[in-house]
Amino acid sequence: MRGKSIAAAGLFKWGAATDKYYDIFRMVEPKKKLAEEMQKQKEKAEAELAVTLANLHEVEEQLKELNAEQKIKQDELDILLKRQAEMARKLNAASKLITGLGSEQKRWTAQNEENKLDKVKLVGDCLTASAFLSYSGPFNFVLRQKMIFEHWKQDLVEKEIPNKDTFSLQNFLSSDVEVSRWASEGLPSDELSI
Q1: In this predicted model, what pLDDT tens digit does every residue of 41-72 receive, in sequence order?
Q2: 180 within some domain
């Protein structure tokens, strides 16, 4: 075309370029619209993502608060469980003690009754013990026993002064602890020596 006319060659070149541009435009225009649409979808998705991230941050903060509150409550629960276990142990020990003391109640009741009787008979027993301490020191064991149980105790009965029938000087004037201490110190532990 250039050989025939330079102007026609330029026009042909322009026409061919326009045709090629049209073909390219037909292919690019839908892609361009698709790209614009995808850009809008991307912006919309990014906005939704920002909202979701903000919500996630809010939920994470709430979760942190709830976890901290749960730890406080768990610590309180642990303390209460320890207290409950301790109280249960004390209650169990108290129940055992009360049960054990229940069996002792009979013995204590009997001992209390015996003590009431001893209180009444204390006058005669004190009189017997004081007479023993005052008057029987120089005499031997047989004579002492005769003085106490054949003369003085009979005299108390005749004068109706209350006294114990099972009176024992050893139990009245000393205790088992004292007698044990004396024996540990090397003193004899027979009835006369005590």
Answers
A1: 999 999 999 999 999 999 999 999 999 999 99
A2: no
Residue type, 14: W
Please give the tally of structural domains in the chain: 1
Output the furthest CA–CA distance in the chain (Å, rounded): 180
* Owning domain of residue 36: 1-116
Within a domain: 151:
no
State pTM to two decimals. 0.42
Residue 164 DSSP class:
-
Contact 128, 163 (CB under 8 A): yes
Q: Are 169 and 132 in contact (CB under 8 A)?
A: yes
- 173 touches 129 (CB < 8 A): yes
Residue 27 lies in a domain: yes
Question: From residue 177, how far is each of 44, 83, 125, 130, 181 by CA, in Å?
Answer: 99, 42, 21, 22, 6
